[in-house]
Design goal:
The complex is a heteropentamer of chains A (409), B (171), C (519), D (670) and E (103). Chain C has 519 residues and is mainly α. In chain C, 74% of the residues lie in helices and 3% in strands. The mean pLDDT of chain D is 84. Helix content of chain D is 71%, strand content 3%. The radius of gyration of chain D is 39 Å and the shape is elongated. Classes of the chains: A mainly alpha (409), B mainly alpha (171), C mainly alpha (519), D mainly alpha (670), E mainly alpha (103). Chains in contact: A-B, B-D, B-E, C-D, D-E.
Amino acid sequence: MNAPANTNSLLERAPVMIRDWIIGFFPESLRWPVGALLAIAAMLAVFGLVFAFLTLAERKLLGRAQNRPGPNRSGLPFFRGTKLFGLTQPFADAVKMLTKEDIVPRAADHLLHFLAPVLVVAFALMTFAVIPYGRQLVAVDIDAGVLYFFAAGAATELAIFMAGWASHNKYSLIGAMRALAQLISYELPLLLSVVPVVMLAGTLSPTKIVEAQANVPGGLIPHWHVFTPWGAVGFAIFMVAALAEANRSPFDLPEGESELVAGHLTEYSGFKYALFFMAEYFGMIGLTGMGATLFLGGWQAPCAFLEFIPSYLWFGVKMLSLILFMMWIRATLLRLRIDQLTRLAWKFLVPLALINLGTAAFWSRTDSWSGPLQFVRWAIALALIVVPFVVIGRRLTAGLAPRTYRYAT
Amino acid sequence: MTAALILIALLILGSTAVAMSLRNLIHSALLLVLSWMGIAAFYLWAGAEFVAFAQVLVYAGAVSMIVLFAVLLTRRSRADLSIAPASLRRAVAGVLAGGATAGVLTLAVLRTNLQIAPSAAPTVTVQQLGLELIGPQVASVLVVGVILTVALLGAVVLAASDRNDGKEDAP
Amino acid sequence: MPLLSLIIFVPWVGALLLAALPRIGDGAARVLTLIASLSTLALGLVALASFHPAAPGFQFVEQHDWIRSLNVHYHLGLDGMSLLLVLLTGIVSPAALLASWKQARSPRYFGLLFLALQGAALGVFLALDFFHWFIFWELSLVPAFFLIKLWGGPGAARAAYQFFIYTLAGSAFMLLGFAAIFAATGTLDFTQLARLAADGLLVEKLAAVSGFWPQAVFLGVLLGLAVKVPLFPFHTWLPPAYAEAPVGVSMFLTGVMSKMGVYGFLRILWPLFPAHLHAASGWLLCLALGGVVFGAFAAMRQTDLKRMVAYSSVNHLSYCLLALFAVSYSTGRIGFTVPASIAAFAGTLLQMFNHGLSAAALFLCVGILESRSGGRRGLGDFGGVRTAAPVFAGLCGITMFSSLGLPGLNGFVGEFLIFRGVFGLAPCTATIATLGLLATALFLLTFWQRVFHGPRAGAASREFRDVAGIELVALVPLVALMFLFGVLPHLLTNLFNPLVTSWVSHINPVVTTAQLPLP
Amino acid sequence: MTLSVQHLWLIPALPLLAAAIGALTPSGGRTLAASAAIAAMVAAFVLSCCALVAALADPTANLTYNFTWFDLGTGAVRLGWLLNPLTAFMCVMVTFVGTLIFVFSLGYMHDDENFTRFFCFLSLFAAAMLGIVVSNSLLFLFVSWELVGLASYLLIGFWFQKPEAAAAAKKAFITTRIGDLGLLLGMVWLYHARGTLLFFDGGAGVLEPASLTALMVSTLSCGLAVSTAISLLIFCGAVGKSGQFPLHVWLPDAMEGPTPVSALIHAATMVAAGVFLIARIYPLMEADYHHHNLPIHALTVVAFIGAITALMGALIAVAQNDIKRVLAFSTVSQLGFMMLAIGVGSWVAAIFHLLTHAFFKALLFLGAGSVIHAAHHEQDMRKLGGLSGPMRVTFLTFAVGMMALAGVPFLFSGFWSKEAILHAAHAWDVSHIPLYFGLTAVVLTAFYMTRLVAETFFGKPRSHAAGLAHENPAVMTVPLVILAACAILLSLLAWPTPWLQHQLDPQAHTEPGGLSLMMLSIVLVALGLGAGWALYGRLLRTNASAPDPLAAALPRLHAFLAARMMFDELYAATFGRLSNGLAALADGLDRYVWGGLVNLVARLGQFGGLVNREADEDGLNAGFDAVSRKVRSVGQIYSRAQTGETHGYLRVIALGFVVLVLLVMLGGVR
Amino acid sequence: MNTLQLCLLISSALFCIGLAGALSRTNTILVLLGIELMLNAANLNFIAFWRFNPAPLPATGVIFVIFAIAVAAAEAAVGLALVIAIYRHQQNIRLQDATRLKG
């Protein structure tokens, strides 16, 4: 990709310059580990804060959605009486979590009980290594980045099982089983929705995928994957699967408060519970980050003349918008039953993803069509997607009576 | 370079040895997962990233899940937890056989003089692998695809426990 | 217009129609069968109209590739002899159907099998490639077997089996022979084989394979044909088969089926293996003579009328063979003269045709007698039928005298020519053969005397209907034809005269060592 | 008014037409059939006369008209008509006698229900006979010859209800058929030798000098000339048809037919056909006469056969009691005379005797017929008697016939024709035996005729039927009178001048005199008549069962002669048994030898099947079962190794692997 | 004793531990896991040889390992399904009890 004119704007290169400056202090041999440590520290800091404020944002958003203000009581020790709009609420929560008593059931398998939250957070954090936050801002640029991302994601199920098994509690075990079933069911559509992107970009490395979505000089529509027919469907399936992977809203059955107390988290309390909570958010961040990278063009600006805004800002905006979108869904959609959930995955998303693969293949073959053929291309691609969508959709809901809405009178 | 290798080797061998000797199935299963992670690390050490992540994804992600599910589904009887006397004899026989094979293998490895080129770890990009797979190996890819589907369906059929099936098998 | 294929397949189409209409009434089935059978006569006459005897070789030739890998062609052709036999079939089969008009139990099946038989017979006379010739040859056996077995008399089953297996065994050898020929020459077409044989290549090719093959192939084909004619020692299947068969079938068997054998000799054996036939002709003459004499004398001993007529047809057919073997015997010898052999061949063909008519008519008369006596057909079962049924007696008398060879009727001309030819070529055999003539006269007159003369006795004593209606329609044409061909034989001889002359001219007088001039 | 040779075929055609009409008319149309038949005969007679006129115009010329019947190969089978004095005379005789007999039959067959059928057969017979006479081709002659045989068969077996008639008809046909075979062979040989069967074909004909010399030249291996062989074969036919010595047995039995039939066939025409045939091919017969180094001459055979037949016929006639049998044997004897005449070289005498004999024998037969008719079908002389009174005309005409036959001198034609024969026999230089046989025959003829007349007409009626006899109506007696007149008038043919001789054979020289022979024959005739009268005339038989004087004198000889010299029994013993034996052989051969062979093959097939099944059962299957049992036992040993223990298997694999690697390592396999 | 031999030693050690485990444990699942280990040992060898192979491309070793992993996964799935089926049938999963398939 030819570097656009303003890649060397100060803001753009600031983080890299800082890092080089710090590394400069260390001897050659230590340079690599120090660089890695620095990246880790930066990520922890940034995402730690982002996690904190995300919890607040979520509670404020839910509140507003349910026509109530949300947390606005917490204040600073010394600024009594000032309206902080609940900004310090996360810090208050953090203190609460740390100080609450950590109860471990006697019959529990202590080792596994302790190991479960640690592994969950560890694997969640490991996924951040490959996400490209900016033009050169990627912790580890390995060739099979996307695969690494999903491998790490897959490991989290292990930890959930440990949690469910170790707490020696029927509810937690059943909750773990349900969580596992959901996670495994949705891992497939998640991966399958990513495959077209990899096919079109021709590589598994996230940085190259983002570069593949660089702006064509003079093109008005951003050259992102989402703006192609298969890209859109892929992105939609990816987002639904991501929701399920992160145990978010419509798919948050495992710790459905109303039925299963907290699923595999029932026996956890205090800091371990907080860790699980943090891991969930990190998972969400990771998934939305990878979603943005794959479909929304990562740190690419929508169009050439907006290049002057630094790449990592674009990435941030996109990621946060996705997260807020997830929260928004949490506020609106109802929770799905376990059989609806798995049927949606196996009978709807997987076939659609496979067909999407077909459309992407058609799309890549017909790249050379130009002029009026573009519309034909678009029409065929859309048809290839919409028709199965409608057919499978109707077949799935064949047996159900039409939805009746009873508004509160 | 070899330090890392030795470390990884210790991790793998240690976890497998302990896993094989533990009585608690879940623990031995999880330890095995650890050993698979060790093997993935070895692949990383050898430079085959793709294989490593595939190993992690397949084993840690999927196989471990099946193993754990299998363990859970077959836990009712307490009998298997206690080591029956007969199995002690079997254990000794097993270890002896294992030892014999180990001795022979090490003898074989040490006796053969394998020259190695002192080159750096060769890196193979995913694209090269992809081209290789789609190129000459396309047949085997398809075959593996078929095997996996068949295994999937077979497993479902075998494991599915519908009511009347039970009666048929009653001796 | 593929006339010859039509001739062969119209009866078969009729058979198929019958098969396809299970609910057709008895009357309709009989009429349909008759029409299909008459088609042969009609088409034969059409062929006769546009047949010019003088043209050499075959006419109305149809040749299509059939099995290219085996070099087998669907090759049909018509020459004087085949036309004669087709016309004979055309005349005899409707008569046979009319004869069994009342009797046949289920006329539909009877018609079906009969038409199949007729088609196969026509196929044999017209096919010129061994492959489908042999198919027709074997195919004619199957319906004949069932007709005899299902509609025959008390001993029908045994007779049918003997007939079938005996003929089949014979033709199995013939098949082997032709397989050898095909292996050696690569072709099964009679015309080509004849050309090969003409310039000695056939024997040469067979000998090339291995020494004894020519003789073996000749013997095989000879056996196959001999069983069918039947030549003397191989005729034991004939009397029971003809006796047990129902009237119509025995008429067809004696009228047409036996002619296949003689046709086979003249069409296949003689042109293909002249030298071998000459070599073996001494023995064959004796056998034919045996057939003539023993056939006639055996007839004298028979009490069952049908067996008697069967033996008489053995006798008559042996005359045909006598003539052929005489010609082949005398080729190359001093006694050989062209007019004698022409007369012999002409006599054979005429005898074939005339015997077809008279034997069929005789069987019809015996059938009529049998129908009146409730199935009994012993010589002693009747007496004085002439007083009871004068018209029938008259017609049967004419038939009897025609098969006796009385001049003025059709039997005489053929026999006279045969004797004229055989005497010229082999005088001693001719003199012995006259014994046959005498014996024929003897047993026929005994039959006539025991059945027709004397006071009314046996079946004739009771109510004995004179011949009327259908039987008359069947019998009168045959008798009329006997008179016609008796007085005007040139109607027939014109057909095959050029053919016979060409046959004789083809005999290259292979002068073997000076033999005894005239045995 | 002359009849050209092209139209000669009309003579046989007319009766044939009448026969066809007779056949087609239902049994009711009696008058139509009869009138058609008689009209046809009269017309034929008129035409014959015209033909006679044409023939006598130039006696030596043989007028012929040949046409193609059907072409065969390069040549063609040709037939033709021949007109010469011989043909003409025969046609006239046949038609004239035929007409008279037809008229007689009107009366005789009047109350027979198959009346139309009778006339149809008679016309058929006449047509066939005329066919023989007019034919110029031996082939057409043979055809008519066989048709004559058929007609005689039908007529003899006319009353087919009677088993004897049916048997007689069959016997007649078979015996003549035997003769015909000889004729057929001769004809075929002639055809083969000369390539044609026409008598006179402008030089190429069989009887023309060219072919005769050719036939003479070629001789058989046994030295016999071809012409002799052929003529002897043809003579066999004549022997059969004319009832000569070996084949005469059918003639007496032929009397079973109605008397007009006997008259027509066995007096006038059919039997004469044989003589006519030999006369017709006389040149062929005579061809070898002048060659002396030949072992045998045709004519000598004919002569001797004729002589023997004449004597034998006369001898047997003496001992017969049935009128018609006596006349039958007399005919045989007279035919012997004719053959004798030809044999000794004078075919003209034979033909003359044939003509005269036709008339008076027909007269005798018809006379006998009217007697039988009157006596209600009583034929045995011993039962008749005393008919001279009531049947005056029959008696007188019968007497005329008797005297003509016996050869009463001068007045009757029989005397002249017999005289000519004896004269010729006397002139024959080969041997005189035929002459002596002839003379004895003359005596015997006179003797048995007088016996016949005496027994039948004189004395008293010895049976009730004879008693009732009365004269027949005119339709029967008129033909008798006419015939009697002819019997007398025919002597004119030879008496003043040998006119007939000149017509038939102009060049033949006739040596004068020979008066002593004539006187000798007159004496012999007188002797015969006297003896006959002596034995039977004077002491008339009183009743039917009275012993015959001759029988009393020579009992065994008379019994032998009464039994017709036992020929029937002889033939039955020899040929009858031979043919039955041969038939039995043929049938046995078929049933047991060939049938046996086929069954043997069938048995072999079954046996083969049996052997195959046994071998298969014991040998193969048993062996196979044993082997499979062995394999299973070995299998069991091995299967114990399969314990089902997975660990066991794994352990074995591991140890196996170890051993393998050790082998590879230590074995030094590099 | 170079690194390749070291790797081979590690893999053979892993192989033998798997074998020993498979042989000694009665619990079918562990036997299956032992076999799984032996398979992974083989994969180790492949990668080791690929790693020290003078001509690393084409990466046949790596591809083989990928296929081996896929097939091993399938095998594990079917194996464990069998275990469940056996369990349902004989209520325990002791391998030495499952001897119905004997000769």
